């Protein structure tokens, strides 16, 4: 272990640092994640002359890449960045530094495919939190890919994606470079193609004559299934979603019905749509982003006369955790512990359970809230749902959800490819992990107001 053995709270000196304002809410919300690695709580402060138990930012415009350095004798971490906003890159390096044999880690790409393979192996071995939960042996998985470093180009990246996909976690994956958007369809990947589950009436595919049940033409569907990691309840749909991924340019798709008719259409990049929309007494929350709390608050107020409000989270794959936290606090009624989180310590094991303590945020809370979910309700959407799902004025319909509350970190690989690795397990108030199993009405306990502050000390993995 190269990190300093801090002997009191670590003072992270970013207050007042230009370009870091947007990080503050997330860092405060997830401060326990850093405590799990640092061994001490982290607090936020302006730059000072303090030299011990401190994380400082050193701006050096001429450096080639951001880096994080450990001074073990001085009990100090130093982020060296080209501009203050790049401090976020060094946050991603903390876990790498914790298991590094050297006193520094750099946010830079690997130079060879062999180095990429070694980086993937090490980062997952030391950070990934679900081996026991999922009954996996990383050594056994790695043994099947021992010759990966000898491959090149597309063959290497396909095999690397297949390797990491064996973990069965949609958050943990080797990702190709480029911007990503998704057309408005839902489908499940089969060995015959992507079977369409949803084709909106106003979509290009519908206008071309395509309907639910048609098969989208897919080259090598088995490869999409093999290179996609996801929990069983969502695996086929996540594979189809990956296949349908678009960049900034239009893309041509084709689909066929059961009678041999084939239709081709050109799909434009999807337009920007609000994350919350109202349809009668239903509020559809498509994703969590910065604007979502204000939109949800306005939607709830517009439905204040309704005895029952429906919140539709189906297909919501997550997004901004800070936004999800603000939204869930609108709907809880009392302060208390709402489950717990365990974080990776970046050295191959997990922290103790940290309770999730939430305070309500004044808003218009409906007398009865129906929440609709499915297997693509995932990630930050599950963090939003978890504290609400067992309240006595809430009913959950559908599920199980996707089973992934992983707080992934991103590590550069080579040629724009990156590795994302989960770092946490979230638990319900009864100690059940959300990871893998997800949430649904059958598995959620009921919480009444007088039991809203139960202890997390008895939680078991």
From TrEMBL:
Residues of the Tail specific protease domain: 248-445
Q: Which GO terms describe its biological process?
A: proteolysis; signal transduction
Which ranges are annotated Basic and acidic residues under compositional bias?
254-264
Task: Please list the GO terms describing molecular function.
Answer: endopeptidase activity; serine-type peptidase activity
The superkingdom listed in its UniProt entry is Bacteria
Gene3D superfamilies according to UniProt: 2-enoyl-CoA Hydratase, Chain A, domain 1
What InterPro entries does its record include?
ClpP/crotonase-like_dom_sf, Tail-specific_protease
Give the span(s) annotated as Disordered: 250-279
Q: Which GO terms describe its cellular component?
A: outer membrane-bounded periplasmic space
Q: What is this protein called?
A: Tail specific protease domain-containing protein
Q: Which organism is it from?
A: Nesterenkonia salmonea
The organism that produces this protein has a lineage beginning with: Bacteria, Bacillati, Actinomycetota, Actinomycetes, Micrococcales
């Amino acid at each position: 272990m190269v990190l300093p053995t801090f002997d009191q709270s670590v003072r992270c000196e970013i207050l007042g640092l230009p370009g870091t304002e947007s990080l503050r809410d997330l860092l405060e919300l997830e401060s326990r994640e850093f405590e799990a690695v640092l061994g001490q709580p982290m607090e936020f402060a302006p730059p000072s002359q303090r030299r011990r138990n401190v994380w400082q930012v050193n701006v050096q415009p001429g450096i080639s890449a951001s880096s994080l350095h450990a001074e073990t004798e001085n009990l100090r971490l130093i982020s060296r960045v080209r501009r203050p906003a790049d401090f976020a890159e060094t946050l991603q390096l903390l876990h790498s530094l914790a298991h590094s044999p050297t006193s520094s880690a750099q946010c830079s790409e690997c130079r060879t495919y062999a180095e990429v393979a070694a980086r993937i192996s090490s980062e997952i071995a030391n950070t990934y939190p679900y081996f026991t939960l999922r009954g996996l042996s990383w050594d056994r998985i790695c043994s099947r890919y021992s010759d990966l470093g000898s491959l090149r180009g597309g063959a290497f990246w396909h095999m690397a994606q297949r390797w990491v996909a064996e973990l069965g976690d949609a958050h943990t994956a080797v990702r190709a470079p480029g911007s990503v958007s998704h057309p408005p369809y839902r489908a499940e990947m089969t060995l015959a193609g992507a079977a369409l589950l949803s084709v909106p009436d106003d979509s290009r595919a519908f206008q071309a004559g395509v309907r639910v049940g048609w098969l989208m033409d897919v080259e090598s569907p088995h490869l999409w299934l093999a290179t996609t990691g996801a929990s069983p309840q969502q695996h086929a749909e996540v594979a189809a979603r990956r296949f349908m991924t678009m960049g900034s340019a239009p893309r041509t798709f084709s689909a066929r019905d059961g009678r041999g008719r084939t239709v081709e259409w050109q799909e434009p990049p999807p337009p920007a749509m609000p994350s919350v929309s109202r349809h009668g007494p239903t509020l559809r929350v498509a994703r969590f982003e910065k604007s979502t709390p204000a939109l949800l608050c306005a939607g709830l107020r517009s439905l204040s006369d309704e005895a029952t409000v429906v919140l539709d989270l189906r297909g919501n794959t997550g997004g901004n955790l800070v936004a999800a936290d603000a939204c869930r606090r609108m709907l809880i009624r009392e302060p208390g512990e709402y489950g717990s989180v365990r974080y990776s310590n970046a050295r191959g094991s997990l922290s103790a359970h940290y309770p999730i303590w939430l305070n309500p945020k004044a808003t218009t809370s409906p007398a009865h809230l129906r929440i609709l979910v499915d297997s693509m309700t995932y990630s930050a959407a599950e963090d939003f749902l978890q504290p609400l799902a067992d309240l006595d004025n809430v009913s959950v319909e559908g599920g199980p959800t996707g089973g992934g509350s992983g707080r992934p970190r991103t590590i550069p690989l080579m040629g724009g490819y990156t590795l994302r690795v989960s770092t946490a397990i979230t638990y319900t108030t009864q100690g059940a992990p959300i990871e893998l199993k997800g949430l649904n009405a059958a598995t959620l306990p009921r919480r009444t107001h007088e039991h809203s502050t139960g202890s997390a000390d008895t939680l078991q993995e």
